[in-house]
Amino acid sequence: MEFSMSLPLLLDPGARDPYRETFELARIAEESGFSTVTIGHHHFMPGNLPDPLTFLATVAARTDTLRVGTGIFQLPVHNPVRVAEQVALIDQISGGRVSLGVGMGWWPLEYQVHGSEFRQRGARMEEALKILRHVWTTENQGYEGRFWSFPELTVHPRPVQDPHPPLWVAGVADAAVDRAARLGDAWLCGPVQSLAKAQSCLDVYRASCAEHGTRPDWILRRYAWLGTDRKQVARDVLPHYVGGLMEHWRESAEDDIEKALFARLDAGEDVSPEEIAADRLLWGAPDDVVAQVQAYADATGCTHVHAAFGAGLPGSVAQASLGTFDEIAAMVRLFGREVIPAFAA
What we know:
CATH topology: TIM Barrel
Mean pLDDT: 93
Largest sheet: 8 strands, parallel, barrel
Radius of gyration: 20 Å
CATH class: Alpha Beta
Low-confidence stretches: none
Distance between the termini: 8 Å
Number of domains: 1
Strand content: 15-25%
CATH superfamily: Luciferase-like domain
Order of helices and strands: EHEHEEHEHHEEEHEHEHHHEHEH
Number of strands: 12
């Protein structure tokens, strides 16, 4: 089993090294056995990064073996040739340690401001993924498309990874999952989706991979809170954490299962945090999380689990995650000591 994790954005405004704590968490993740760290992407939200690629270049420069990636970069908002150049440069800086996780986002303002069109986001994603592969694997070639066209050119620097940095494609709609099978190297399962929804998406993904002759590979993302005492986590953390997650999920709920959950809550039904977390979060003591990961693996066959410790809160606040540096560092170290070894080959 491979384990990766999200980096929380911990900012100390005015400090000489304002993101020092986030960079330190990357080093702790590397020491604790995580294969990859990712960072998210949103414009005009104080708790998110408008330029995660620049940030990842710094993470790569401050680590040795840890892979870095986006989870997710809003590819249809931006020019894919420019993105290809940035990612190729990080691939050089890191010695071939970058992956590009992409998605479409949910906020029309981000598209509008950057000269893109929200209603065309699926088609733009499709073309942008083709362009990334095109410019990373060819030289002195042009491209003529619906949204982007360019004459013969070669992107420099060239990527280190062969044939190119891995493309992880997110989405839960059937069309998005099929796109991941055709044009991605892996499908990113959303962290808010229930196990039932993840399984239905997997059915689509695996069928699409078989149809198009591509190799299935996917990453199960889950929000997480790990402690030494399950009862303490359930009592003191889970209600507040799940409440914040639900507030954020309302902004981007896509599938019927999530919409049905909100309908129950809006009708006044008392849905416990434990019920909501049951097949959506990794939470509790290490033994609990080991059992949860094993249950996901048994149900889906997943071999790569991505944990987002305290993440997923609304991006409108300065820190879109729960927990101090010390709390998150303790969770990362505890996960590395007690959970990752349980799945060692």
